[in-house]
Design goal:
The protein is an alpha/beta fold. It is about 45% helix and about 20% strand. It is built from nine helices and seven strands; from the N terminus they run H-H-H-H-E-H-E-H-E-E-H-E-H-H-E-E. Helix 7 (about 135-145) links the parallel strand 4 (about 120-125) and strand 5 (about 150-155).
Amino acid sequence: MAGDQRVQAYFDARAVPFDRVYEPGPGIRGGLDALIYRRVRWSLDVTLAELGDLSAKTVLDVGCGPGRYAVAAAERGADVVGIDFSPKMLELARERALDRGVADRCRFVEADFDAYQPEERFDIVLMMGLLEFRADPERDLARLSELATEKVIVNIPPPFRWRTTAPRVRHRLRPAPPAFYVHSPAAIGACLEQVGFDAWRTTAGWFVGYKHPESRPA
C-alpha cells in the first residue's frame, strides 16, 4: 500500500464513519451498527483484557486508525507510538488522546509500515484490522516480531463470513483500493510459528503471539 494516494484517500474518507462504530448512536442506524460491527468492539475488549496493566510498558500500534487502541493503552499506563498513513485517522487519534488526557503518553506518526524504521523496540506491538489489506502476512508478522520484545497482537476477519465475503466480492466486481486479502486462521498460526514466536493462541481470528514464556499472562 506504500505510496498509493488512492488508498490513503480511501481511509481518510472513512475515518469518521469507522470511528463511530465503536460507539453506536441511538435509533435504527445505531442498532444496525451495533449488530454489524460488534466484532470490532469485541476485538478491542479482548485485546484490553489480554494487555491488562501497562504501567512502564511501551506499545506500538501499527495502523492505529482513530486511536482507540492506542489511547486505551495509554490510559492503562503505557507510552504509545501509533502509526498510520491516513492524516484524517491520525487527526482523530490526536484529538482522542487530548480529550482523554493522555496526549503526553501518545505519539502519532504519519508513516507507512513498510517504510517505518523506529530506533527502538517495543514491549508490545499491535496490528489490528490491517492484515486483511496486506498480501504477505508472514513478512509482516516477521517484522512485528522484530519490533516486539514481549508479545504481538493481530486480528483477521474470520473467513467465509459475510463481513469477509462482501468486501472480497465487491473488490472483484469493481476493483478499487484497497485490495482485500482473506487469510485463514491456520495460515496466520503457521506464520507465527515460522517467524519464531515462543507460543501463540487464537480466538475467532484474534491472535496473540508470545516472544518468551514469561510474557504470557498467568
